[in-house]
Known about the structure:
The chain has 508 residues and is of the alpha/beta class. Helices cover 42% and strands 21% of the residues. The chain is built from 20 helices and 18 strands. An eight-stranded antiparallel β-sheet has the order 14-11-13-12-16-17-15-18. Strands 1-2-10-7-8-9 form a six-stranded mixed β-sheet, sandwiched between helices. Strands 5-4-3-6 form a four-stranded parallel β-sheet, sandwiched between helices. A hairpin with a 5-residue loop joins strand 12 and strand 13. Helix 3 packs parallel to helix 5, helix 5 runs parallel beside helix 6 and helix 12 crosses helix 14. The longest helix is centred in the N-terminal third of the chain and has 21 residues. The protein starts with a helix and ends with a helix. The model has no long low-confidence stretch (mean pLDDT 89).
Amino acid sequence: MAVDYLKRILNARxxxxxxxxxxxxxxxxxxxxxxxxxxxxxxNQPVFSFKLRGAYNKMAGLSPDELQRGVIAAxxxxxxxxxxxxxxxxxxxxxxxxxxxxxxxxxxxxxxxGAEVVLxxxxxxxxxxxxxxxxxxxxxxxxxxxxxxxxxxGQGTIGLEILRQHQAxxxxxxxHTIFVAIGGGxxxxxxxxxxxxxRPEIRIVGVQTDDSNAMQQSVAAGRRVTLxxxxxxxDGTAVKQVGVETxxxxxxxVDEIVTVDTDAVCxxxxxxxxxxxxxxxPAGALSIAGLKRYAERERLRGETLVAIACGANMNFDRLxxxxxxxxxxxxxxxxxxxxxxxxxxxxxxxCALLGEHDVTEFNYRIAAADVAHVFVGIGVQARGESVKLAxxxxxxxxxxxxxxxxxxxxxxxxxxxxxxSTLAADERLYRFVFPERPGALMRFLSAMDPxxxxxxxxxxxxxxxxxxxxxxxxxxxxxxxxxxxFLTTLGYPYEDETANPAYxxxxx
Length: 508
């Protein structure tokens, strides 16, 4: 019952290890979506996640005998760090079973706290089953990551803090909705139980990824659903089956659950970085992605919306993927396959149609004598602009295929365009570096002699100050002197890669 959880939350022991985190305005995001966005910064906890609240509240209530025997937990990472820190503070043994897919960053953080780590299985569910076996064998006390009233109550202190902090700082603007990421459901259960007991008019919206939405499917079915597979990008919420108690509380207190895709999560990670210079993990940014989608869908204006930024244990190697997909997630980049005539000047004519739009990527390899197929990324300012661009291309005789939401194209094909071509006779390969400013690409194309055919072109704007182009040009022997003059007057640093062995092996 909500009253029971209210008492549990008010009496929860969390502040021996946790801190009251900030409730901060996100000014840039607020201005962009027309609502006041407040971020609850649980990424600023000592273990960079909210999970230590519930873990410590559970463990602080164990008997001396239970602490003497030690604890065991199953976790994809953040709960593990909370249990490890709590065990360190309470002076007890801790064994953590983690999936083999857990980022090394999280494994090392748990080991650094003195806990024992057992890697087992591909998902949390696999690790959980193994942890139960070890619990029985070794007589350890199990600390569940979400399906335990004491853990739920510990997480619920976040809801208490949000309402108290909002009353002190933003009392004139009532909270419309609080957005909470859902994995197993412990966080949203605790937050919703408290908020609905105290301020039932505030909406609670859960957010899941569309490939790990066990709670959404369970609520829709009226029973706990077990997913056959879960997506691994947001590993902190990759749960195949939600808890018994969390399912009950979500059904009772949560107003709605929305789902978002990977690109939207990447865009939210970038949003928070722009605001705070902090990098959230995918699960940590899930609530922000859901907030943006919900505000757009409901056409909210002038409301106060709260998102819990619940974790920042980001695997550094994922950042390259996040940066690549963030613009698509925000729909600031449209991606097309465009067919153009294989004739001199058509490439430049196509680029001229883009007007003020930035070219973010261009991939092309000569393959046929009559038409060319190019993969192009284009910077856009608003959702739906890709439709207008496609219409513009069509009016000027360029057939196009919008790939903005094509997972195969965005993940793989953009990196695979190329190969050898029998049509690339007399090809010379050059690598150019130029200042990344509007018009730089067109300046490059305009300076070229129309008699030189482009046989290969690769360009990707990575957000740096300098752009890099790899271009293959078919320059007749009689034009070598003029080509040398072109390289000199262009003024961009370049390298002749025609003799590069890698080029010869894969492209030449």
